[in-house]
Design goal:
There is one protein chain. By secondary structure, this protein is an all-alpha fold. The protein is built from 21 helices and no strands.
Length: about 350
């Protein structure tokens, strides 16, 4: 890709400066080098000179997509489709941008159109399968990944997607086989290492899962899912201080993650740091008001500090959100008989 980009730069230097073609060529060179802002600036100039060039909107939309400017990307793909309504890649990339915004149903609608135009478009099948997985449509997602592998038996992303579907269906051993195959085909596939870690953790192989997360982090040092999942595995193994260090790292880049605050609270509570745990449960509940488990664990922490009235109030909220039976069953050291008596008293 770098060689192609360099060749484009040489060609651009030999072109007459200031033409739309010059700007498109330079934009493509920047896009190939991952210089998305610079590419967009060149495409802007080109499209001012040639506003009816549909491919120009697609490449600018791609640059927006790669830099996670999903709304701007969608606007470009919309414009491309106004100029040419049957551009397969415009539907594909627009669907990918909508998936980036978690508009999975809208994304699937675009992928459906792309597949009507080109039924064997493997990338579209994989992306549609991923969107269906996110909607919980596991069997439909599985069918898309199977179809993708029919057309391209060596597609690492299709194996990964099918592995995630197996994992969601509780078939962890089958998932491991697909993640192994994905990594054979694409050894630098960081997310496949993370997913293989998920599968091993689901099988209770927490130390092996940590190895997978570390391999992912060797490829992508800031991979948040790998760091968070490593924290979960360490928490399961009773390595609470190490788990807290992972959760601290996650919160530096994702300070609005309710689940990370909740799990850091659990780790702190397991170290006997109940006041610190309550601070984390407070933050988790500010971010996610219906977090029943956070109310439950905060109740347990308050109970350990002798804050019985507050513990009861939290346990009651957990019961209202989940169910009294589930809340009581998970309440640990709380005076359950007293809780049940108090509930009956309030009901009557």
């Amino acid at each position: 890709m770098l060689a192609v980009a360099a060749a484009c730069i040489v060609v651009a230097a030999n072109q007459k400066e200031g033409s739309a073609e010059d700007y498109f060529i330079q934009g493509n060179a920047n896009l190939g080098l991952g210089l998305y802002d610079e590419a967009i600036a060149e495409y802007d100039k080109a499209l001012q000179l040639q506003p009816d060039f549909s491919a120009g909107y697609i490449v600018r939309g791609t640059a927006h997509l790669m830099s996670r400017r999903f709304q701007e990307a969608i606007a470009d793909f919309d414009q491309a489709l106004l100029l040419e309504p049957y551009l397969v890649n415009a539907y594909y990339y627009r669907g990918a941008a909508k998936s980036g915004l978690k508009l999975f149903e809208d994304a699937i609608a675009d992928f459906d159109v792309a597949l009507r135009l080109k039924h064997d478009h493997v990338d579209v099948l994989v992306e549609r399968g991923n969107a269906k997985t996110c909607l919980g449509l596991q069997q439909e997602a599985f069918a898309d990944f199977e179809r993708a592998l029919h057309y391209d038996p060596d597609n690492a992303r299709a194996y990964h997607g099918r592995g995630v579907t197996y994992l969601n269906l509780g078939r962890s051993e089958d998932a491991l086989g697909d993640f192994d195959r994905a990594l054979q085909l694409k050894p630098d596939f960081a997310q496949a290492f993370v997913s293989r870690g998920y599968a091993k953790a689901a099988l209770g192989l927490y130390q092996e899962a940590i190895v997978e997360y570390n391999l992912a982090l060797g490829l992508q040092s800031g991979h948040v899912s790998a760091i968070f999942s490593r924290g979960l595995a360490r928490e399961k193994m009773g390595q609470y201080q190490s788990a807290i260090a992972d959760y601290d790292q996650v919160l530096l880049s994702k300070p609005d993650s309710a689940h990370t605050y909740f799990h850091r609270g659990l780790a702190r509570a397991n170290l006997g740091r109940f006041q610190d745990a309550i601070v984390d449960y407070d933050r988790a509940l500010q971010l996610k008001h219906d977090y029943a488990k956070a109310y439950l664990q905060r109740a347990i922490a308050k109970d350990n500090l002798g804050l019985f009235e507050g513990a009861f109030a939290d346990l009651k909220k957990a019961a209202a959100l989940d169910s009294a039976e589930v809340a009581v069953a998970n309440a640990g050291s709380i005076d359950l008989e007293g809780f049940a008596r108090q509930l009956r008293f309030e009901q009557y």
